């Protein structure tokens, strides 16, 4: 008879896998993808290296799990920031979404650099592409609503949103890789995003 895990056993295994993912996130935030090893994650999680391998086949599977957890959290934050609301213009929504996306990245530059640009395995790079697409989706509705209401000039919302995410990620690569906290990055990015979407007279604050 095949062994079936009880709910209690499955819950314990899920909790263990979750703690390993969080430990991997800590290592990535400190050492990047190049500095992550199964042994380093095991030490951070306070478990044996073999325990890490029982839950994840290797570094690629583990980092992919980290990507999925982090991206889900970050996408939700950006989506909430750019959500429609009474009196919120397209400019308000895009500004809040860009500030949230870039601001959160700059607060954890090492991990954000891993998510955006650090050389990684092919499988992890595929997860990165899904990550960019998910973020683009957070801008689509704001742009579409702006076009429909006449606040933005006619354009394809999905194309504009995808281009916006790509441009913002490219701009952030330098500050993230060098772990710089430039005060001008956020306002310049917001101004660029608004100009790219066709908002007139969009300039960074003095």
TrEMBL record:
GO MF terms held by the record: DNA-binding transcription factor activity; transcription cis-regulatory region binding
DNA-binding region: 37-56
Signal peptide positions (record): none
InterPro entries, sorted: Homeodomain-like_sf, HTH-type_TetR-like_transc_reg, HTH_TetR, KstR2_TetR_C, Tet_transcr_reg_TetR-rel_C_sf
Keyword set includes RNA-binding: no
Pfam families on file: TetR_C_24, TetR_N
Residue ranges of domain HTH tetR-type in the record: 14-74
Keywords associated with the record: DNA-binding
Keyword flag Flavoprotein: no
Protein known as: TetR family transcriptional regulator
């Amino acid at each position: 008879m095949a062994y079936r895990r009880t709910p209690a056993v499955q819950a314990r295994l899920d909790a263990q896998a979750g703690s390993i993912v969080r430990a991997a996130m800590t290592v990535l935030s400190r050492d990047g993808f190049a500095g992550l090893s199964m042994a380093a994650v095991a030490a951070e999680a306070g478990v044996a290296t073999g325990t890490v391998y029982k839950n994840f086949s290797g570094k690629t599977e583990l980092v992919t799990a980290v990507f999925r957890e982090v991206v889900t959290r970050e996408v939700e934050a950006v989506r909430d920031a750019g959500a429609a609301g009474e009196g919120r213009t397209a400019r308000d929504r895009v500004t809040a979404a860009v500030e949230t996306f870039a601001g959160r990245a700059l607060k954890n530059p090492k991990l954000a650099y891993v998510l955006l640009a650090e050389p990684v395995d092919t499988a992890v790079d595929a997860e990165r592409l899904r990550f960019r697409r998910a973020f683009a989706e957070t801008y689509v509705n704001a742009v579409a609503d702006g076009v429909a209401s006449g606040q933005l000039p006619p354009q394809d919302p999905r194309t504009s949103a995808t281009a916006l995410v790509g441009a913002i990620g490219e701009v952030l690569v330098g500050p993230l890789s060098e772990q710089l906290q430039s005060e001008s990055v956020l306002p310049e990015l917001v101004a660029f995003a608004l100009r790219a979407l066709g908002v007139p007279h969009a300039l960074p604050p003095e």
